[in-house]
Amino acid sequence: MSDPEKPTAAPPPTTTETETETKTAFNEDWAATALGLVLLALALTGIIPVGLVP
Q1: Which of 5, 8, 22, 47 could form a disulfide with 42 if both were Cys (CB 3.0 to 4.6 A apart)?
Q2: DSSP 3-state assignment of 22?
Q3: Which DSSP state fits 54?
Q4: Averaged over 5-28, what is the pLDDT?
């Protein structure tokens, strides 16, 4: 005999926010890393004057 309280089929899966993002997502963490590296490179090459670098 079948149990009347058990569903016969599993409910469809819901789409979460992470599933809708692509694998090449560029979030704020990577943006901050890239900006920091660019600023470091500019400071080391002398494009940013010494007076502006703390």
Answers
A1: 47
A2: coil
A3: -
A4: 67
